[in-house]
Design a protein that fits this description.
The structure holds 2 protein chains of 2 kinds.
Chain A lengths: L11 E2 L15 E5 L5 H5 L6 H5 L23 H5 L5 E5 L11
Antiparallel strand pairs in A: 2-3
Chain B lengths: L13 E4 H11 L4 E4 L6 H12 L6 E4 L3 H13 L4 E5 L1 H6 L1 H9 L5 E6 L13 H5 L6 E4 L3 H18 L3 E6 L7 E4 L4 H7 L16 E2 L8 E2 L5 E2 L2 H30 L7 E4 L6 E5 L2 H17 L3 E6 L1 E3 L3 H8 L4 E6 L9 H10 L7 E6 L9 H12 L7 H5 L2 E2 L5
Parallel strand pairs in B: 2-3, 2-4, 4-5, 5-7, 6-7, 13-14, 13-16, 16-17, 17-18
Antiparallel strand pairs in B: 1-8, 6-15, 10-11, 12-14
Chain lengths: ~100, ~425
Protein backbone atom coordinates (compact mmCIF):
# COMPACT_ATOMS: atom_id res chain seq x y z
CA UNK A 1 0.00 0.00 0.00
CA UNK A 2 1.56 3.35 -0.99
CA UNK A 3 2.79 5.43 1.95
CA UNK A 4 0.82 8.70 2.21
CA UNK A 5 4.06 10.61 2.90
CA UNK A 6 5.22 9.79 -0.62
CA UNK A 7 4.05 11.64 -3.72
CA UNK A 8 5.20 8.89 -6.12
CA UNK A 9 5.34 11.13 -9.18
CA UNK A 10 4.98 9.27 -12.43
CA UNK A 11 4.01 10.13 -15.94
CA UNK A 12 0.47 8.83 -16.34
CA UNK A 13 -2.18 10.40 -18.50
CA UNK A 14 -5.77 9.82 -19.49
CA UNK A 15 -6.91 10.39 -23.05
CA UNK A 16 -7.79 13.96 -23.90
CA UNK A 17 -6.31 16.97 -25.58
CA UNK A 18 -3.08 18.25 -24.12
CA UNK A 19 -1.90 15.18 -22.29
CA UNK A 20 1.30 15.22 -24.28
CA UNK A 21 1.61 19.00 -24.13
CA UNK A 22 0.65 21.54 -26.82
CA UNK A 23 1.55 19.37 -29.75
CA UNK A 24 0.27 21.89 -32.32
CA UNK A 25 3.78 23.36 -32.34
CA UNK A 26 5.12 20.14 -33.87
CA UNK A 27 3.11 20.76 -37.04
CA UNK A 28 4.53 21.78 -40.40
CA UNK A 29 1.32 21.32 -42.42
CA UNK A 30 -2.24 21.84 -41.27
CA UNK A 31 -5.45 20.24 -42.60
CA UNK A 32 -7.86 22.61 -44.28
CA UNK A 33 -11.38 21.32 -44.96
CA UNK A 34 -13.33 22.31 -48.05
CA UNK A 35 -16.86 22.45 -46.61
CA UNK A 36 -18.40 22.39 -50.10
CA UNK A 37 -17.11 18.80 -50.51
CA UNK A 38 -17.19 17.54 -46.90
CA UNK A 39 -20.02 14.98 -46.57
CA UNK A 40 -21.66 16.11 -43.29
CA UNK A 41 -21.24 19.80 -44.18
CA UNK A 42 -22.64 19.27 -47.68
CA UNK A 43 -25.56 16.99 -46.73
CA UNK A 44 -26.36 18.53 -43.34
CA UNK A 45 -26.36 15.01 -41.89
CA UNK A 46 -24.15 13.27 -39.37
CA UNK A 47 -22.56 10.93 -41.85
CA UNK A 48 -18.98 9.91 -42.61
CA UNK A 49 -17.01 11.66 -39.79
CA UNK A 50 -14.02 9.48 -40.71
CA UNK A 51 -11.63 12.33 -39.91
CA UNK A 52 -13.10 12.52 -36.39
CA UNK A 53 -12.88 8.75 -36.02
CA UNK A 54 -9.36 8.29 -37.32
CA UNK A 55 -7.57 11.32 -35.87
CA UNK A 56 -4.94 9.87 -33.51
CA UNK A 57 -4.96 13.04 -31.43
CA UNK A 58 -8.71 13.47 -31.06
CA UNK A 59 -8.60 17.02 -32.41
CA UNK A 60 -11.38 16.86 -35.04
CA UNK A 61 -14.87 17.75 -33.79
CA UNK A 62 -17.92 15.66 -34.68
CA UNK A 63 -19.85 18.65 -35.96
CA UNK A 64 -21.68 19.08 -39.26
CA UNK A 65 -18.85 21.44 -40.10
CA UNK A 66 -15.89 19.62 -38.52
CA UNK A 67 -13.45 21.88 -36.69
CA UNK A 68 -9.80 21.13 -36.06
CA UNK A 69 -8.17 22.10 -32.77
CA UNK A 70 -4.89 23.54 -34.04
CA UNK A 71 -3.54 23.79 -30.49
CA UNK A 72 -2.99 20.04 -30.58
CA UNK A 73 -3.15 18.95 -34.25
CA UNK A 74 0.32 17.60 -35.11
CA UNK A 75 -0.36 17.77 -38.83
CA UNK A 76 0.06 14.05 -39.45
CA UNK A 77 -2.26 14.15 -42.45
CA UNK A 78 -4.21 10.98 -41.68
CA UNK A 79 -7.52 12.89 -42.05
CA UNK A 80 -6.52 14.15 -45.50
CA UNK A 81 -5.40 10.68 -46.53
CA UNK A 82 -8.61 9.00 -45.34
CA UNK A 83 -11.25 11.57 -46.43
CA UNK A 84 -13.32 9.66 -49.04
CA UNK A 85 -14.15 12.83 -51.01
CA UNK A 86 -10.68 14.42 -50.75
CA UNK A 87 -12.15 17.45 -48.98
CA UNK A 88 -9.09 17.91 -46.76
CA UNK A 89 -5.89 19.45 -48.05
CA UNK A 90 -2.63 19.65 -46.12
CA UNK A 91 -1.34 23.20 -46.40
CA UNK A 92 2.10 24.37 -45.20
CA UNK A 93 1.75 26.20 -41.89
CA UNK A 94 4.18 28.78 -43.21
CA UNK A 95 1.40 29.99 -45.50
CA UNK A 96 -0.52 31.15 -42.46
CA UNK A 97 2.25 33.24 -41.00
CA UNK A 98 2.10 37.05 -41.30
CA UNK A 99 -1.50 37.53 -42.29
CA UNK A 100 -1.58 34.87 -44.98
CA UNK A 101 -4.75 34.90 -47.03
CA UNK A 102 -6.05 31.35 -46.81
CA UNK A 103 -7.54 31.33 -43.29
CA UNK B 1 22.16 -12.07 14.10
CA UNK B 2 20.68 -14.45 16.61
CA UNK B 3 18.90 -17.16 14.68
CA UNK B 4 16.70 -18.51 17.44
CA UNK B 5 15.64 -16.88 20.67
CA UNK B 6 15.08 -18.97 23.78
CA UNK B 7 11.32 -18.54 23.62
CA UNK B 8 11.04 -19.86 20.12
CA UNK B 9 10.49 -23.48 19.30
CA UNK B 10 13.70 -24.90 17.87
CA UNK B 11 11.78 -27.26 15.58
CA UNK B 12 10.61 -24.27 13.50
CA UNK B 13 14.08 -23.88 12.03
CA UNK B 14 14.97 -25.72 8.87
CA UNK B 15 18.27 -26.32 7.12
CA UNK B 16 18.20 -25.26 3.51
CA UNK B 17 20.18 -23.34 0.89
CA UNK B 18 20.14 -19.57 0.55
CA UNK B 19 18.41 -19.85 -2.82
CA UNK B 20 15.61 -21.89 -1.26
CA UNK B 21 15.32 -19.29 1.52
CA UNK B 22 14.75 -16.65 -1.17
CA UNK B 23 12.17 -18.80 -2.99
CA UNK B 24 10.34 -19.44 0.30
CA UNK B 25 10.12 -15.71 0.94
CA UNK B 26 8.58 -15.17 -2.48
CA UNK B 27 6.08 -17.96 -1.81
CA UNK B 28 5.19 -16.47 1.59
CA UNK B 29 4.83 -13.04 -0.03
CA UNK B 30 2.24 -14.53 -2.39
CA UNK B 31 3.92 -13.08 -5.47
CA UNK B 32 1.58 -13.55 -8.43
CA UNK B 33 3.91 -13.31 -11.39
CA UNK B 34 7.39 -14.80 -11.57
CA UNK B 35 9.38 -14.12 -14.72
CA UNK B 36 12.96 -15.25 -14.73
CA UNK B 37 15.73 -16.59 -16.89
CA UNK B 38 18.09 -19.07 -15.26
CA UNK B 39 21.69 -18.06 -14.65
CA UNK B 40 24.27 -19.49 -12.29
CA UNK B 41 24.19 -19.12 -9.27
CA UNK B 42 20.59 -17.87 -9.24
CA UNK B 43 19.12 -20.91 -11.07
CA UNK B 44 17.89 -22.86 -8.00
CA UNK B 45 15.66 -19.89 -7.00
CA UNK B 46 13.79 -20.07 -10.30
CA UNK B 47 13.70 -23.88 -10.21
CA UNK B 48 12.23 -23.87 -6.72
CA UNK B 49 9.59 -21.28 -7.63
CA UNK B 50 8.64 -23.12 -10.79
CA UNK B 51 8.35 -26.34 -8.74
CA UNK B 52 6.14 -24.67 -6.11
CA UNK B 53 3.82 -23.28 -8.78
CA UNK B 54 3.59 -26.57 -10.69
CA UNK B 55 2.84 -28.45 -7.47
CA UNK B 56 0.00 -26.04 -6.73
CA UNK B 57 1.73 -24.75 -3.60
CA UNK B 58 1.88 -21.25 -4.96
CA UNK B 59 -0.86 -19.41 -6.83
CA UNK B 60 1.25 -17.58 -9.39
CA UNK B 61 1.96 -17.39 -13.08
CA UNK B 62 5.47 -18.53 -14.01
CA UNK B 63 6.47 -16.81 -17.23
CA UNK B 64 9.39 -18.55 -18.90
CA UNK B 65 11.17 -15.85 -20.89
CA UNK B 66 13.93 -15.83 -23.49
CA UNK B 67 16.16 -13.31 -21.70
CA UNK B 68 16.62 -11.23 -18.58
CA UNK B 69 15.55 -8.13 -20.50
CA UNK B 70 12.22 -9.85 -21.11
CA UNK B 71 12.04 -11.07 -17.51
CA UNK B 72 12.14 -7.50 -16.25
CA UNK B 73 9.77 -6.36 -19.01
CA UNK B 74 7.23 -8.99 -17.86
CA UNK B 75 7.62 -7.81 -14.25
CA UNK B 76 7.08 -4.22 -15.40
CA UNK B 77 3.88 -5.25 -17.19
CA UNK B 78 2.64 -7.26 -14.20
CA UNK B 79 3.41 -4.52 -11.68
CA UNK B 80 1.72 -1.94 -13.96
CA UNK B 81 -1.40 -4.11 -13.91
CA UNK B 82 -1.34 -4.10 -10.11
CA UNK B 83 0.16 -7.55 -9.66
CA UNK B 84 2.97 -8.47 -7.25
CA UNK B 85 5.93 -9.48 -9.40
CA UNK B 86 9.30 -11.07 -8.69
CA UNK B 87 12.41 -12.00 -10.60
CA UNK B 88 15.93 -13.06 -9.78
CA UNK B 89 19.21 -12.93 -11.65
CA UNK B 90 23.00 -12.71 -11.40
CA UNK B 91 25.96 -11.07 -13.10
CA UNK B 92 25.61 -10.59 -16.88
CA UNK B 93 21.91 -11.39 -16.55
CA UNK B 94 21.46 -8.30 -14.40
CA UNK B 95 23.38 -6.26 -16.94
CA UNK B 96 21.23 -7.59 -19.75
CA UNK B 97 18.15 -6.15 -18.02
CA UNK B 98 19.86 -2.85 -17.23
CA UNK B 99 17.72 -0.77 -19.59
CA UNK B 100 14.57 -2.18 -18.02
CA UNK B 101 15.93 -1.62 -14.50
CA UNK B 102 16.04 2.12 -15.13
CA UNK B 103 12.54 1.89 -16.60
CA UNK B 104 11.10 0.07 -13.58
CA UNK B 105 12.56 2.71 -11.26
CA UNK B 106 11.42 5.70 -13.32
CA UNK B 107 7.95 4.15 -13.57
CA UNK B 108 8.01 3.70 -9.77
CA UNK B 109 7.02 0.03 -9.94
CA UNK B 110 7.43 -1.96 -6.73
CA UNK B 111 9.20 -4.97 -8.22
CA UNK B 112 11.37 -7.13 -5.98
CA UNK B 113 14.38 -8.91 -7.43
CA UNK B 114 16.98 -11.13 -5.82
CA UNK B 115 20.45 -10.66 -7.24
CA UNK B 116 22.70 -13.57 -6.41
CA UNK B 117 25.97 -11.70 -6.69
CA UNK B 118 28.51 -13.00 -9.19
CA UNK B 119 31.48 -11.54 -11.06
CA UNK B 120 30.88 -10.02 -14.49
CA UNK B 121 32.40 -11.34 -17.73
CA UNK B 122 34.75 -10.96 -19.53
CA UNK B 123 36.38 -13.27 -18.73
CA UNK B 124 33.54 -15.53 -17.66
CA UNK B 125 33.33 -16.19 -13.97
CA UNK B 126 30.49 -17.91 -12.18
CA UNK B 127 31.94 -17.07 -8.77
CA UNK B 128 31.06 -14.39 -6.31
CA UNK B 129 31.84 -10.70 -6.13
CA UNK B 130 29.66 -7.57 -6.00
CA UNK B 131 30.44 -5.93 -9.34
CA UNK B 132 27.03 -6.84 -10.79
CA UNK B 133 25.11 -4.91 -8.13
CA UNK B 134 27.68 -2.10 -7.95
CA UNK B 135 27.48 -1.54 -11.71
CA UNK B 136 23.71 -0.92 -11.34
CA UNK B 137 23.85 1.29 -8.28
CA UNK B 138 22.67 4.39 -10.18
CA UNK B 139 19.63 2.74 -11.78
CA UNK B 140 17.21 4.13 -9.19
CA UNK B 141 16.71 0.82 -7.39
CA UNK B 142 16.93 0.31 -3.67
CA UNK B 143 19.78 -2.12 -2.96
CA UNK B 144 20.01 -4.17 0.22
CA UNK B 145 22.58 -6.83 1.10
CA UNK B 146 21.94 -9.96 3.21
CA UNK B 147 24.65 -11.59 5.34
CA UNK B 148 23.10 -15.00 6.01
CA UNK B 149 20.15 -17.23 5.12
CA UNK B 150 17.85 -15.86 7.80
CA UNK B 151 18.45 -12.39 6.42
CA UNK B 152 17.74 -13.56 2.86
CA UNK B 153 14.25 -14.77 3.74
CA UNK B 154 13.45 -11.91 6.15
CA UNK B 155 14.92 -9.19 3.95
CA UNK B 156 13.09 -10.43 0.84
CA UNK B 157 9.76 -10.27 2.68
CA UNK B 158 10.54 -6.81 4.02
CA UNK B 159 11.61 -5.79 0.51
CA UNK B 160 8.10 -6.43 -0.85
CA UNK B 161 6.62 -4.23 1.86
CA UNK B 162 9.20 -1.48 1.27
CA UNK B 163 8.82 -1.56 -2.51
CA UNK B 164 5.04 -1.28 -2.24
CA UNK B 165 5.09 1.46 0.38
CA UNK B 166 7.55 3.76 -1.40
CA UNK B 167 6.92 2.55 -4.95
CA UNK B 168 10.57 2.03 -5.76
CA UNK B 169 11.86 -1.36 -6.90
CA UNK B 170 14.11 -3.26 -4.50
CA UNK B 171 17.12 -5.45 -5.26
CA UNK B 172 17.90 -7.99 -2.53
CA UNK B 173 21.56 -8.97 -2.91
CA UNK B 174 23.18 -12.09 -1.51
CA UNK B 175 26.52 -13.67 -2.24
CA UNK B 176 26.67 -16.35 -4.92
CA UNK B 177 27.77 -19.74 -3.50
CA UNK B 178 28.80 -18.35 -0.08
CA UNK B 179 25.08 -17.93 0.65
CA UNK B 180 23.18 -19.20 -2.41
CA UNK B 181 24.47 -22.76 -2.35
CA UNK B 182 25.46 -23.32 1.28
CA UNK B 183 23.03 -24.80 3.77
CA UNK B 184 22.32 -23.03 7.04
CA UNK B 185 19.58 -23.21 9.64
CA UNK B 186 16.97 -20.49 9.42
CA UNK B 187 13.41 -20.02 10.54
CA UNK B 188 10.76 -19.40 7.88
CA UNK B 189 8.28 -16.77 9.10
CA UNK B 190 4.78 -17.97 9.91
CA UNK B 191 2.53 -17.63 6.84
CA UNK B 192 -0.48 -16.14 8.63
CA UNK B 193 1.69 -13.48 10.24
CA UNK B 194 3.27 -12.70 6.89
CA UNK B 195 -0.20 -12.02 5.47
CA UNK B 196 -0.81 -9.49 8.25
CA UNK B 197 2.65 -7.96 7.80
CA UNK B 198 2.40 -7.70 4.01
CA UNK B 199 -1.04 -6.58 2.82
CA UNK B 200 -2.14 -7.14 -0.77
CA UNK B 201 -0.54 -4.92 -3.39
CA UNK B 202 -2.71 -2.12 -4.76
CA UNK B 203 -1.62 0.46 -7.31
CA UNK B 204 -3.47 3.65 -8.16
CA UNK B 205 -2.37 3.56 -11.79
CA UNK B 206 -3.11 -0.18 -12.20
CA UNK B 207 -3.99 -0.74 -15.83
CA UNK B 208 -7.70 -1.35 -16.25
CA UNK B 209 -10.02 -1.25 -19.28
CA UNK B 210 -12.48 0.65 -17.07
CA UNK B 211 -10.05 3.51 -16.62
CA UNK B 212 -7.66 3.73 -19.56
CA UNK B 213 -4.37 5.54 -18.97
CA UNK B 214 -1.14 5.96 -20.85
CA UNK B 215 1.88 5.31 -18.63
CA UNK B 216 5.33 6.80 -19.08
CA UNK B 217 4.78 8.21 -22.54
CA UNK B 218 7.04 10.94 -23.92
CA UNK B 219 7.26 13.43 -21.09
CA UNK B 220 8.24 16.94 -22.02
CA UNK B 221 11.06 18.89 -20.39
CA UNK B 222 8.53 21.29 -18.81
CA UNK B 223 5.65 20.68 -16.41
CA UNK B 224 2.23 20.80 -18.09
CA UNK B 225 -1.48 20.96 -17.37
CA UNK B 226 -3.08 17.62 -18.12
CA UNK B 227 -6.44 17.05 -19.83
CA UNK B 228 -8.15 17.76 -16.50
CA UNK B 229 -6.23 20.99 -15.88
CA UNK B 230 -4.05 19.43 -13.17
CA UNK B 231 -0.37 20.40 -13.20
CA UNK B 232 1.86 17.40 -13.94
CA UNK B 233 5.60 17.31 -13.55
CA UNK B 234 7.97 17.19 -16.46
CA UNK B 235 10.77 14.64 -16.70
CA UNK B 236 13.08 16.47 -14.31
CA UNK B 237 10.39 16.89 -11.64
CA UNK B 238 9.56 13.19 -11.80
CA UNK B 239 13.23 12.23 -11.50
CA UNK B 240 13.79 14.68 -8.62
CA UNK B 241 10.88 13.07 -6.78
CA UNK B 242 12.48 9.63 -7.25
CA UNK B 243 15.72 10.92 -5.72
CA UNK B 244 14.01 12.62 -2.78
CA UNK B 245 11.75 9.70 -1.98
CA UNK B 246 14.58 7.24 -2.29
CA UNK B 247 16.26 9.13 0.56
CA UNK B 248 13.05 8.98 2.58
CA UNK B 249 12.93 5.22 2.06
CA UNK B 250 15.66 4.72 4.71
CA UNK B 251 13.23 5.78 7.44
CA UNK B 252 10.46 3.60 6.01
CA UNK B 253 12.86 0.62 5.93
CA UNK B 254 13.53 1.18 9.64
CA UNK B 255 9.81 1.37 10.40
CA UNK B 256 9.19 -1.83 8.46
CA UNK B 257 11.99 -3.53 10.37
CA UNK B 258 10.36 -2.51 13.68
CA UNK B 259 7.04 -3.99 12.53
CA UNK B 260 8.84 -7.13 11.41
CA UNK B 261 10.61 -7.42 14.75
CA UNK B 262 7.29 -7.11 16.55
CA UNK B 263 5.71 -9.83 14.43
CA UNK B 264 8.62 -12.26 14.12
CA UNK B 265 11.13 -11.39 16.85
CA UNK B 266 14.04 -10.77 14.50
CA UNK B 267 15.69 -7.60 13.21
CA UNK B 268 16.86 -4.40 14.80
CA UNK B 269 19.69 -3.44 12.45
CA UNK B 270 18.10 -2.85 9.04
CA UNK B 271 20.54 -0.22 7.74
CA UNK B 272 23.79 -0.59 9.67
CA UNK B 273 24.50 -3.75 11.64
CA UNK B 274 27.35 -3.04 14.09
CA UNK B 275 29.42 -5.68 15.86
CA UNK B 276 31.60 -4.34 18.69
CA UNK B 277 31.57 -0.84 17.20
CA UNK B 278 30.66 1.14 20.35
CA UNK B 279 34.21 1.59 21.66
CA UNK B 280 36.02 0.72 18.43
CA UNK B 281 39.13 2.60 17.29
CA UNK B 282 39.14 0.55 14.12
CA UNK B 283 35.90 0.04 12.22
CA UNK B 284 35.71 -2.31 9.27
CA UNK B 285 32.91 -1.64 6.81
CA UNK B 286 31.73 -4.44 4.51
CA UNK B 287 28.62 -5.70 2.76
CA UNK B 288 27.15 -9.18 2.57
CA UNK B 289 28.55 -12.41 4.00
CA UNK B 290 32.05 -10.94 4.35
CA UNK B 291 30.77 -8.72 7.18
CA UNK B 292 29.95 -11.86 9.17
CA UNK B 293 33.35 -13.35 8.35
CA UNK B 294 34.90 -10.24 9.88
CA UNK B 295 33.33 -10.93 13.28
CA UNK B 296 35.95 -13.64 13.82
CA UNK B 297 38.69 -11.18 12.83
CA UNK B 298 37.32 -8.56 15.23
CA UNK B 299 37.24 -11.07 18.10
CA UNK B 300 40.83 -12.09 17.42
CA UNK B 301 42.11 -8.50 17.12
CA UNK B 302 40.52 -7.72 20.47
CA UNK B 303 41.70 -10.89 22.23
CA UNK B 304 45.19 -11.39 20.78
CA UNK B 305 46.27 -7.87 19.95
CA UNK B 306 44.27 -5.64 22.26
CA UNK B 307 43.03 -3.70 19.23
CA UNK B 308 39.57 -2.28 19.78
CA UNK B 309 38.09 -3.29 16.45
CA UNK B 310 34.51 -3.56 15.26
CA UNK B 311 32.75 -4.39 12.03
CA UNK B 312 29.90 -2.38 10.60
CA UNK B 313 27.80 -4.29 8.09
CA UNK B 314 26.19 -2.03 5.53
CA UNK B 315 22.78 -3.62 4.94
CA UNK B 316 21.42 -0.90 2.66
CA UNK B 317 23.66 0.49 -0.08
CA UNK B 318 21.10 2.51 -2.08
CA UNK B 319 19.69 4.78 -0.81
CA UNK B 320 23.08 5.44 0.74
CA UNK B 321 22.79 6.09 4.48
CA UNK B 322 25.60 8.67 4.35
CA UNK B 323 24.64 10.67 7.44
CA UNK B 324 24.11 7.53 9.54
CA UNK B 325 27.45 6.12 8.43
CA UNK B 326 29.29 9.37 9.07
CA UNK B 327 27.75 9.47 12.55
CA UNK B 328 28.72 5.86 13.26
CA UNK B 329 32.31 6.45 12.11
CA UNK B 330 32.98 9.76 13.91
CA UNK B 331 34.83 8.27 16.87
CA UNK B 332 36.92 5.76 14.94
CA UNK B 333 40.61 6.37 14.25
CA UNK B 334 40.71 3.99 11.29
CA UNK B 335 37.94 3.01 8.92
CA UNK B 336 38.72 0.07 6.67
CA UNK B 337 36.44 -0.50 3.72
CA UNK B 338 36.65 -4.03 2.32
CA UNK B 339 34.74 -4.56 -0.88
CA UNK B 340 34.17 -6.91 -3.77
CA UNK B 341 33.46 -4.30 -6.42
CA UNK B 342 34.97 -1.09 -7.68
CA UNK B 343 34.70 1.78 -10.10
CA UNK B 344 37.45 0.85 -12.54
CA UNK B 345 40.09 3.53 -12.86
CA UNK B 346 38.96 5.13 -9.62
CA UNK B 347 38.66 3.14 -6.39
CA UNK B 348 36.26 0.98 -4.43
CA UNK B 349 32.70 2.22 -5.02
CA UNK B 350 31.73 1.86 -1.37
CA UNK B 351 35.00 3.46 -0.26
CA UNK B 352 34.32 6.48 -2.47
CA UNK B 353 30.80 6.77 -1.08
CA UNK B 354 32.00 6.59 2.53
CA UNK B 355 34.76 9.12 1.94
CA UNK B 356 32.22 11.45 0.41
CA UNK B 357 29.79 10.94 3.32
CA UNK B 358 32.51 11.85 5.84
CA UNK B 359 33.67 15.02 4.09
CA UNK B 360 31.08 17.43 5.59
CA UNK B 361 31.79 16.21 9.15
CA UNK B 362 34.48 17.61 11.47
CA UNK B 363 36.18 14.30 12.25
CA UNK B 364 37.54 12.34 9.37
CA UNK B 365 39.08 9.04 10.41
CA UNK B 366 41.97 7.59 8.47
CA UNK B 367 40.49 5.62 5.59
CA UNK B 368 41.75 2.44 3.99
CA UNK B 369 40.38 0.68 0.94
CA UNK B 370 40.77 -3.02 0.25
CA UNK B 371 39.59 -4.90 -2.81
CA UNK B 372 39.05 -8.60 -2.13
CA UNK B 373 37.51 -11.73 -3.55
CA UNK B 374 36.87 -10.68 -7.14
CA UNK B 375 35.57 -13.55 -9.27
CA UNK B 376 35.56 -15.85 -6.26
CA UNK B 377 39.23 -15.42 -5.28
CA UNK B 378 39.36 -16.97 -1.83
CA UNK B 379 39.17 -14.59 1.12
CA UNK B 380 41.07 -16.34 3.91
CA UNK B 381 40.06 -15.07 7.35
CA UNK B 382 43.76 -15.11 8.22
CA UNK B 383 44.57 -12.59 5.47
CA UNK B 384 41.71 -10.31 6.57
CA UNK B 385 43.20 -10.42 10.06
CA UNK B 386 46.73 -9.70 8.85
CA UNK B 387 45.83 -6.84 6.50
CA UNK B 388 43.62 -5.19 9.10
CA UNK B 389 46.30 -5.49 11.77
CA UNK B 390 48.98 -4.10 9.45
CA UNK B 391 46.76 -1.20 8.40
CA UNK B 392 46.17 -0.31 12.07
CA UNK B 393 49.86 0.49 12.38
CA UNK B 394 49.94 2.48 9.14
CA UNK B 395 51.21 6.01 9.42
CA UNK B 396 48.70 8.76 8.85
CA UNK B 397 51.41 10.76 7.13
CA UNK B 398 51.60 8.51 4.08
CA UNK B 399 51.37 10.55 0.87
CA UNK B 400 47.62 11.10 0.24
CA UNK B 401 47.68 9.45 -3.18
CA UNK B 402 49.21 6.35 -1.61
CA UNK B 403 46.89 6.08 1.38
CA UNK B 404 43.85 6.69 -0.82
CA UNK B 405 44.67 4.01 -3.39
CA UNK B 406 42.87 0.68 -3.05
CA UNK B 407 44.99 -2.23 -1.88
CA UNK B 408 44.25 -5.50 -3.64
CA UNK B 409 44.29 -8.43 -1.26
CA UNK B 410 45.24 -11.92 -2.39
CA UNK B 411 46.69 -11.16 -5.82
CA UNK B 412 48.65 -14.09 -7.22
CA UNK B 413 50.72 -12.31 -9.88
Amino acid sequence: MPDPRFKILTSASTSGPGDAGRTGSWRVERPVIDMSSCIPAKTGKHACHLCWLLCPDNVVSKDLEPAIDLEYCKGCGICAQECPVKAIEMVPDADFIEGAERE
Amino acid sequence: MQILSKEQNVSKAIIESGNVAAAMAVQLARAEVIAAYPITPQTPVTEKLSELITAGKMDAEYVAVESEHSAMAVCIGAASAGVRAFTATSSNGLLYMSEQLHWAAGARLPIVMCVVNRGIGAPWSVWNDHQDAISQRDAGWIQVFAKDHQEIIDMTLKAFRLAEQVHIPVMVNYDGYYLSHTYMPFEPPDAARVDAFLPAYKYKHALSPERPESLNTVTLPDARLDAHGIKRGGYMDIRHNLHEEMGMAIEVWEEIDRDFQEAFGRGGAPVLDPYHCDDADVVIVAMGSMANQFRVVVDRLRQDDGIRAGVLALQMYRPFPGAMLAGALQSAKHVMVYEKGLSYGSQGALYGDIKSALYPYPTRPQLHNFIVGLGGREIPTESLYQTTKTACGQDRRLPPAQSDAPQWIGLQL
